[in-house]
Amino acid sequence: MEKKIDETKQGNSLVLEAKDSNKRKLFIESYGCAMNFSDSEIVASILSNQGFNTTNELEEADLVLVNTCSIRDKAEQTVRKRLEKYNAVKRDINPKMKVGVLGCMAERLKEKFLDEEKIVDMVVGPDAYKDLPNLLAEVEAGNDAVNVILSKEETYGDISPVRLNSNGINALVSITRGCDNMCTFCVVPFTRGRERSRNPQSILDEIQDLANTGYKEITLLGQNVDSYVWYGGGLKKDFKNATEMEKATATSFSQLLEMVAKAQPQMRVRFSTSNPQDMTEDVFHVMAKYPNICNHIHLPVQSGSNRILKEMNRQHTTEEYLTLVDKIREILPNCSISQDMITGFPTETEQDHKDTLALMEKVRYAFGYMYKYSERPGTMAARKFEDDVPEATKKRRLTEIVELQRKHGAEITQSFVGKTTEVLIERASKKNPNEWSGRNEQSITVVFPKAGYKLGDIVKVKINSCTSATLIGEAVNY
Ligand code: SAH
Ligand code: F3S
Predict the structure, then answer these.
(1) What positions does the entry give for [4Fe-4S] cluster 1 binding (predicted)?
(2) Does residue 309 line the site of ligand 2, with CB under 6 A?
(3) Which domain holds residue 85?
(4) Is residue 283 within a helix (H) or strand (E), and if so which, with residue range?
(5) Could you tell me the sign of the dihedral formed by the alpha carbons of 316, 322, 325, 330, in that order?
(6) Gap from CA of 225 to ligand 1 centroid (Å)
(7) Which of 95, 140, 166, 298 is least surrounded by CB atoms within 10 angstroms?
């Protein structure tokens, strides 16, 4: 349902169209955020030129790659379990199989992986995927291979990703890589490096290709999409100083969004993730101007307490956040807002927690992703603080915010009952194969009887009932 993928869910192995000339078999699966899933498409594209077709049968793979997530300890534990599984297959069934770790855990643990996890042959960080052919050659020569060098420039803009595990309808298009924000709890700036933006032309070209192949919706992807900026064909480092940089023609996120929406009026456009401190009003105006840009903003806040926000090094207060929310409501009255929240950050008091609940009451998010704080080695928060909120307290606070979110979600879904909402059909409903499932602009899941419609259709659906997260209705002629 959601664009953002829950880090705790099982990874998906990805399969793409086979090339007859390719004789080797790649099993690639991804955990974590949408960016990882998008990166795996780049990796599969690179390896397709190295003689690999994808398979979803682990046992028959020549090469197993796992794209990993470090955001919370639990995410890393999930990957370790998968490595044990590969190990068992390698030992019992397929001794020639090679195993590589990609992504954030590769970057965080580097060579340690080779020492600790004897099964791993290759460790490749998020900016080193173009080096895969060389690394593979090393592995085939019987050596271990590691490349975890982070880049200030790599955007993979020149690689056209193969669309994996795809329904042929929604696609992820990355526009920035890395993050410069340094939220104190977060490992991403360490594992994904400095922020860099991708050439707008390569973004537009990729989306044009997607349109040509029948895709109906794209999500522009970045850790912090609002800070997207492209300096007239050059790179930030090419400019001597800020003034010179300002003089150059820069493309901002709102301009990019407008270029995309204008170029593809038939395509639905989404973006994720927005960061409160960098989001500007011009984005809302572009959203209001182009009906194909979906009325949904994922706007993580993390906490409703100013003291905690400060300790998190978030560059906004709750007041500034609420002013931004008011602006959204004013310019985009039908826009849904969703959140990320962390509960039990070090030193969080009962009052801080109450402030979070109070902020949620003020905003009334459509949905959200809520997590217990997980200490990440090397981050500022880990260096400065004890992880001092007891597990039971974290758990109870998490339950309270999840419950409140459920209540707000239910109120929002209820407000659609009796109304009509436009839905892009994305898949058959998991519960009932005679029903379609899709999302409306607000990113709320809608299910309804198939009744002659097909995947990829955009349909008006009259909503008859709902649960706290799903709308239930029937397609109507108009
Ligand atoms: N800007 C990113 C954020 C990536 S991390 C984006 O594109 O969404 C996704 C979410 O995980 C964060 O918003 C935060 O709520 C949560 N998170 C990050 N580090 C965490 C930690 N150490 N413990 C618990 N949750 C964390
Ligand atoms: Fe992490 Fe904050 Fe960037 S949550 S990804 S450091 S915006």
Answers:
(1) 33, 69, 104
(2) no
(3) 12-147
(4) helix 281-289
(5) negative
(6) 15
(7) 95
